[in-house]
Amino acid sequence: MKASVENVPTHLEGYTPFALVKLFDYVTLDLRWAILYDELDSFKSIINRVVNVHLRGKLKGDKWVLENSSFCFYEALNKIKNDWKYQGLLTMELDGKLDSSSFHNFIEAMKTFAQCKYP
Hints:
By secondary structure, the chain is an alpha/beta fold. Helices cover 29% and strands 22% of the residues.
């Protein structure tokens, strides 16, 4: 069995989430926390040890969006998948509620994501 360590916030003085996870062999990169700590680019140096990427975003129409970020959801995804050549697991995490009125938009957003046709 293998377990990965996620880059969650820490209260350890002098450490950021990335500073902690880089010490482990198997890492889960959570986009939400990487944005909060402005550490996404740091993960390039350990991308070969990343075994799962959590892509948390909100739906705006039929597109995934990030809040409080200097880049858009699809820029981050392109960087991770294409620039860094990551081929591992991607876990989509919808931030907020999904009701019947937005279900069609969710399906369309997932189709775009699954087909790698990013806007």
